[in-house]
Design a protein that fits this description.
- The chain is built from one helix and 14 strands, in the order αββββββββββββββ.
- The chain is mainly beta.
- The strands form four sheets. It has a five-stranded antiparallel β-sheet, with no helix packed on it.
Length: 296
C-alpha cells in the first residue's frame, strides 16, 4: 500500500483505501510570463518590450514553483550633448518558463536584442539597426525586432512588441513601438508587452517628433523640441520611449516591470510574494507583481 500521508487529508486517505483509487497528484497550470521592458535611449531608440510567453504546464501538488518578476530597464540618463543608451529589462520566470527582458533602445548605437529588440539610434546621418527580438529563441515567438533609425539625423526606431516589429524612423519622427499581445488569463482581455516609441533629433527636422508607444504599455517617444521619453507601463512589460531633443539634457523612458500570472482549477496550498488572488469561473488566478513562489 503506498504511503501518501501528508499529501492528502485523513478523510481522503480512508476514501482511497476503501475504493482502491488514489487521487491524482497532477495539476494543470495555465501561465502568462511577461519580462521587464527595455529602457529608451536619452535621445533616439525606443526600448523593446519584455518577452511574452503563455501556455499550460502539468505540475505536481506539493511542489513549490518559483516565480521571478523582472524589473524594467532604466532609460538613458539626461546628459547634455552625450548620447546614452537605455538598459535592457530583466527576465521573468515561472517554473521552467523564462521570458527574456526587452532590449534597450540605442542612442548612437544599434538597439539591443531581447525578448523584443530595442529600436536603433540615428546620428550624423547614420541610421542604426534595431535589435533582434525573440532572443533567445522560443516557440511560439516571445517578441519582435526593433525598428531602424532613419539615417537622416532625424527619427530613430521604435522598440519591438510581442506581436509586431517596431516602426522605422523617418524625417517625420521616431518609429512607433510595436504592438503587444492580448491575454484573457485573468478573465478579461488585457494587452501586454508593447514597444517603446522612438525619439528624434529635432535640430535637423524641426517638425519631427517622437513615435507612439505600442499597445500594451509601451511608452511614447519624447514630444516637442526637448521631450523626455515616457515610461513603459508597470506590470505590462512595455518598453520605454526614446527621448527627443535639440540640444538640452533629456532622458529616455524606463521600461515597465513584468508580471507573472498563473491560474488553475485547484486553489494553491500556499504562496509567497503576496500575489493578488481573484477568481473567474472555475479558475483561481494568482497575479504576481513581485517575486515569490506558489505550491498547489
Amino acid at each position: 500500500m503506498p504511503n501518501y500521508s501528508g499529501r492528502w487529508s485523513m478523510e481522503q486517505q480512508f476514501q482511497a483505501i476503501g475504493s482502491g483509487t488514489w487521487p491524482s497528484t497532477s495539476v494543470e497550470i495555465e501561465y502568462l510570463v511577461v519580462a521587464g521592458g527595455g529602457g529608451g535611449a536619452n535621445v533616439f531608440g525606443g526600448g523593446g518590450a519584455g518577452g511574452f510567453r503563455t501556455g499550460t504546464l502539468t505540475g505536481e501538488t506539493g511542489t513549490a514553483y518559483t516565480v521571478t518578476v523582472g524589473a524594467g530597464g532604466a532609460g538613458g540618463t539626461a546628459s547634455s550633448g552625450t548620447a546614452i543608451n537605455g538598459t535592457s529589462g530583466s527576465n521573468s520566470v515561472f517554473s521552467t518558463i523564462t521570458a527574456a527582458g526587452g532590449g534597450y533602445g540605442g542612442a548612437n548605437a544599434v538597439g539591443a536584442a531581447g525578448g523584443s529588440g530595442g529600436g536603433g539610434g540615428d546620428w550624423a546621418a547614420s541610421g542604426r539597426a534595431g535589435g533582434a527580438g525573440n532572443t533567445p529563441s522560443t516557440t511560439p515567438s516571445q517578441g519582435s525586432n526593433g525598428g531602424s533609425g532613419s539615417g537622416q539625423d532625424a527619427g530613430a526606431g521604435g522598440g519591438g512588441g510581442a506581436s509586431a516589429v517596431g516602426g522605422n524612423g523617418s524625417t517625420s519622427g521616431g518609429g512607433a513601438g510595436g504592438a503587444g499581445t492580448a491575454s484573457t488569463i485573468t478573465g478579461s482581455s488585457v494587452t501586454y508587452a508593447g514597444g517603446g516609441g522612438g525619439g528624434t533629433f529635432t535640430g535637423t527636422y524641426t517638425g519631427a517628433t517622437g513615435g507612439a508607444g505600442g499597445a500594451g504599455g509601451g511608452g511614447a517617444g519624447g514630444v516637442g523640441m526637448n521631450g523626455n521619453g515616457s515610461n513603459g507601463t508597470a506590470n505590462r512589460g512595455g518598453g520605454g520611449g526614446g527621448g527627443t531633443r535639440e540640444y538640452d539634457s533629456i532622458a529616455g523612458g524606463a521600461g515597465g516591470s513584468g508580471v507573472v500570472i498563473v491560474r488553475a482549477t485547484r486553489a494553491a496550498a500556499s504562496t509567497t510574494g503576496s500575489p493578488t488572488v481573484t477568481t473567474s469561473g472555475s479558475y483561481t488566478i494568482y497575479t504576481f507583481t513581485s517575486s515569490g513562489s506558489i505550491t498547489f
